[in-house]
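Here is one chain, start to finish.
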Amino acid sequence: MTLPSHRHPSGRQLARTGVICASLAAGMIGLAYASVPLYNAFCKATGYDGTPRQGPALAASATRSNDSMVVHFDTNVAPGLSWKFAPEANRVEAKLGETKTVFFRVKNTGTVPSTGVATFNVQPDLMGGYFVKIACFCFNEQTLKPGETIDVPVVFYVDPAVRDDSNTAHLSEMTLSYTYFASKNGQPVTAAVANRGASGNKRDF
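Its structure:
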């Protein structure tokens, strides 16, 4: 009986396999880079993981004048950035659907120019889908000279649909939290939101 012979792959087959593997690797790397902005866009559109939504203001007829939400503001500066950062008020009461504007004061307390960028989050996480930012200073890189102070606004509303969701209908308070990080090329130098050694809600400008 003649045993079947084992055929070794030809040079052309090996080259084709190499091209396929290289293409798959390149595609996976590209997907990994694309996943970050896609994930951020998804979070902003849905409010997932406590990320505030972005959108236009509501018509006045959509507001619920008999219902409101207390919004607390939490401000922090990550280690490595010599800034002070505080809201003009630690909390506001906003009617559902009502457009509110709150200013935050930022000061460079260091001896050299420095650049920072703010990240944000909403707590409880479920409220991220109902806190809608119309305009915000977050993710806008700021460079401040030594001793320079600026006022930056956030314009927002709380979606009245919060009362139609059984998970959030009972909530009367929420917290919008910001952390300023040292920035490079418009991105936080560190991805971790570290509060150790940070300043929180300090108003001694």
